[in-house]
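1st attempt posting a full record on here, be nice pls
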Amino acid sequence: MSLLTIFVSFSLLSVTFAQTTQNINVLLINEESNALAEKAFEVAKEYVRRNPNLGLAVDPVIVVGNRTEAKAFLENVCRKYNDMILAKKTPHVVLDFTMTGVGSETIKSFTAALGLPTISGSFGQVGDLRQWRSLNSNQTKFLLQVTPPADILPEAIRAIVTKQDITNAAIIFDEYFVMDHKYKSLLQNIPTRHVITPVKSFEINEIKTQLENLRNLDIVNFFIVGSLRMIKNVLDAADKNQYFGRKTAWFALSLEKGDISCGCKNATIVHMRPTPDANSRDRLGKIKTTYSMNGEPEITSAFYFDLSLRTFLAIKSLLDSGKWPNDMKYITCDDYDGQNTPNRTLNLKTAFQEIKETPTYAPFFFPQDDPMNGRSYMEFSTELLAITVKDGASISSHSLGSWKAGLSSNLTLTDPNNMSNYSAELVYRIVTVEQKPFIIRDDKQPKGFKGYCIDLIEEIRQIVKFDYEISVVPDGSFGLMDENGNWNGIIKELIDKKADIGLASMSVMAERENVVDFTVPYYDLVGITIMMKLPRTPTSLFKFLTVLENDVWLSILAAYFFTSLLMWVFDRWSPYSYQNNREKYKDDEEKREFTLKECLWFCMTSLTPQGGGEAPKNLSGRLLAATWWLFGFIIIASYTANLAAFLTVSRLDTPIESLDDLSKQYKIQYAPVNGSASMTYFRRMADIEERFYEIWKEMSLNDSLSDVERAKLAVWDYPVSDKYSKMWQAMQEAGLPNTIEEAIQRVRDSKSSSEGFAWLGDATDVKYNVMTSCDLQTVGDEFSRKPYAIAVQQGSPLKDQFNNAILQLLNKRKLEKLKENWWNNNEQAQKCEKQDDQSDGISIQNIGGVFIVIFMGIGLACVTLGVEYWWYKWKKRPLVGAVTQVEPAKPSRNNGNPQKMGDSFNFRSRNMGINVKSKF
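the predicted structure (as tokens):
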């Protein structure tokens, strides 16, 4: 080949190269904290220079500003931009590498106002770029944004929270990440209570304090988003606070490619880190080696490198294809008046998307139909690793799965069940108040308590998977608000975030609902009722003897003996008595000799329905007997009448049957427990009455009223009842008991049901104590009824979860079964004796003595029989050989006719001790 031929070929090649090389003017705008982006841009420019086959020559103008000093930043940009126009080097494109803040928004406003084709790498999803929210269809084609990896990686938190059903989270990030726009959007529409906060210092002691504050908010899931150095410091601080274990979970997300490390004694951390696309690893290694792209994180450097290179190639494509307008109009910052924005027909978006250059780390994702802004990003992959650290050294690391970058991507797990081992167990803190049968302390139980509410929460946890720790609230109160608006008890614990759940027999009240949330009621409406001592009618087996006083009984006994003695004397001395005139009465059917024994028997039997038998024959004796009969009739009638009255007099007392009855009497003191909801009810009712009185008084004494209006208010009496005011005063005078036990003891110490103390308390408290005691009673109907429900922190997702569980239990009739177990089948319930009722008869306790009298009489008769037999057989034995006179037997009645003397006779042989009957 000749020298001329070589020269001509070289000349033609030079001309061809000169014709295809495009000079591109670029205005690069960056912020001071994003130096890595500018280095990546320089690498891209160097890459273009070293690859002439690309046909590019980049001429940049770089402006760097502070994101917080928007005015100075804009002035610097305008000055550089105006200089480019004066130098006839109008920018083909603006590369906006600002990250966030007012400086970045100022640049967006600048490019939109002047109509400058712009590729931005700023942080933000749809709608976050405020100055680009209202772009028209033409503007969306040349004002373009691609979200950087640092803005996409936190979206993995949403995937983890959703997959693991995490209900609380703390997200800690450093300066490499911008989370301003994610405070609401990151976990939007997910029932997770979360805090997003920057790490306040790299000093471990300050990080410890920050973690303590987060832990005090009852957060157990921690996400650390930042550099490996920041992650190490946070983990070391957590180790010093002893925040590793089954109750906490730690997730570390970093764009850096190294492994996490910490001085932890024993910790397990889920680490997420990006990995380059398999098709891009060789290119990434070549770019890093050849062009010294050594900035870290390498994914960030690769992103800005690819963004810059793709922008250059897109502009060249438009220029080469003739799609770049020839009449591109540019105006200076000073020329802009708010209305003269140049109208662009440039379609930079399509050209940018159609570039086929091999990505350096991972491909870009562009939506097909929607605008790019807020929806475009580098579609990189991350790997999930479970790192176990012991005594400061990593002892194991195994893969859990992966996550592909995206705004709504899900985790891809190798073993979903294994992933669940690395999340914090849902351990909720429950505070309660002991109240039987709802909450009963029992150290033998797994949680240290038993009762209706414990069974309820166990049923709920079968539906809503969680574990819990339960403790009694320190002040033992459900929650009341003082005059300064401060709360105590369970409500205070929930407000201060010291507890997740308030589980007790706690009533739903309007003021409580203002500061906490309540689930649907799990128990019926419960009101206030009255507890009093159960009236007891004294019983006695010999109560029939107490009808008459002792001196009356003695008088009756004296009259009995005196009358019997007189009757014997009258019969003995009267000439008309039987024993003194036997011949006269020998034909009478009834013959009775009134010896002293017979007189005693006659007077005794005269007092009985059997009657006394044959009366004396003498007139004086009969008059005495008639007198005795009249006496006995009056005594028996009086005894019978008084016995009936005596057995029923205790039932005639007027009982307390309602709150009104209690308020109208003065013998029984009454009060609720101090600090209880019942006390609050009565105090407020009294306050309301007092306010009504003040309003009425002000109305009545209002001088501004006319005579007609004042006449309408003129009444003699106050028109509103002051019942509660009087009751509240009576309660204060009686003294409010400080505990339920004290109230019950005061009720028991009452003299009777009509004099003593009555307790006004929760109907369930009263019902349980009455059920487990036989000396107490419930009086009247319930009033001021409210439902029982479970309390949770305001805004807590537990409300909806528990609502669903309680409704399921209600539909399955599980709540009815709980009531049956703890009320009807309660092992502590007492089987009390039935109290006498007015419709009942006389109890055996009051009349049983009569039976004792019978048995005593029978016993006495048996003893007497034995004495008689002994006396007759042993004391009256005749001597051997003694002959006794045989006496004829007395005439006796035989078949209604007296026997004749000659028919037979009886004789007694005293010496033989036998009776001999002979017939002649």
